[in-house]
Amino acid sequence: MGLIRNIAIVSLTISFITFVAFFGRLPALRNTPIGALNRVLWVHTPRGLQAVDARLTNGRTSALVVRLANHLWNDRHPIVMIFFILLLSVSEIMIVPQAWPELSTSYKAISTVLIILPYVFLYASAASDPGYISPENHSQHLSLYPYDFTIYHPGQPCRTCRLLKPARSKHCSICKRCISKMDHHCIFINNCVGYQNQHWFLLLLFATATVISYAVFIGSTFLSTMVKSNIPRWNILGKGFTWSEHVYILGWALQERTRMGAVTLLCALTAPLVWGLLGYHTYLVWAGTTTNESMKWSDWQAEMCDGFVFKRSLPKDRRKDPRNEPEWTSWPVESEQVVLRTDDGLPPAENFGMGEWVRVWKLTNIENLYDLGFKDNLKDVFWRRPRES
């Protein structure tokens, strides 16, 4: 029981820390205990360690750790992706040889497909162009989306690439390139998630979550069958057994087949994390936004709560300045509003748009130009649209 307990504790701890580290900054969690733990992990703990190191080594250790951290977080490297591949492959090596002889032909076929797919989608996500913007394809990426005059305004150049930023694009400090429809830089694929590979990333999440859940199903089925051969009245739900008896029998089964039990337990503890990540990105598609844009919308909400955000209408026959924005985009709608924030809480002095400036208090009072409904949002992810040549 000690080995199983230790595996469970380690797996739960790693899963929880990973969840806090990667999701604690999300707008929905920013003001929750998860957000507070994220700040403890990334802000307060490093500051405390630096203060201790300043007394012990005069800051030399901290400087070394900072340089290493900057390399790990701000430069492209395959370390985390290699770890992800090793975690998948080693787990499969531990469980497949034991389970394979006892699998039926149909289950062998299903297992083969499910094992292969994560590697296929990982390669596609990592090796594909996420939507790099260059002088040669700049006009094509400009024609993908119109500016919404809320979080994206025309005429704003990238200070690094020295190109006008297309709507929904962002400069990645790790890839050192501007990315079309930038979602985020993912260290697990050593690449950005953008317009041209977002579909591969979603398929990677789905394939990984599915194969992990399938491993739980196979492992628990085989372990339960083994227990049933010794205890005929056994069932996986533990009906007819006390809680202590149920845990003891499960622990015995996991120890009898240690490798299969360890992988099954690891997958059972990590599957909710992967499904949660897939659910979050599915929600972003449903909402017609990206991880990058969700951060921007969160900032807008904070400004609205202070009463510093205003909107007014845009004329439908507005003439575009071709020096700052494309005359044509493949997106089916154009913005009908301009939204601005001020520093003093007074209506903007800009004369752009028409009508009176109206103070905005809620995000629901602002249209999201890029939300066409879940079906059409999915099409935008999985089907490329024609671009201006």
From TrEMBL:
It catalyses: L-cysteinyl-[protein] + hexadecanoyl-CoA = S-hexadecanoyl-L-cysteinyl-[protein] + CoA. Keywords: Acyltransferase, Lipoprotein, Membrane, Palmitate, Transferase, Transmembrane, Transmembrane helix. One of its GO terms (molecular function) is protein-cysteine S-palmitoyltransferase activity. Its EC number is 2.3.1.225. Coiled coil: none annotated. PROSITE patterns: DHHC (PS50216). Residues 154-297 form the Palmitoyltransferase DHHC domain. The keyword Lipoprotein applies. It comes from the Eukaryota. It is found in: Membrane. GO terms for biological process: protein targeting to membrane. The chain crosses the membrane at residues 7-24, 79-97, 109-126, 200-223, 262-286. It is a multi-pass membrane protein. It is an enzyme of class 2 (transferase). GO terms for cellular component: endoplasmic reticulum; Golgi apparatus; membrane. The DHHC domain is required for palmitoyltransferase activity. Belongs to the DHHC palmitoyltransferase family. This is Palmitoyltransferase. It comes from Calycina marina.
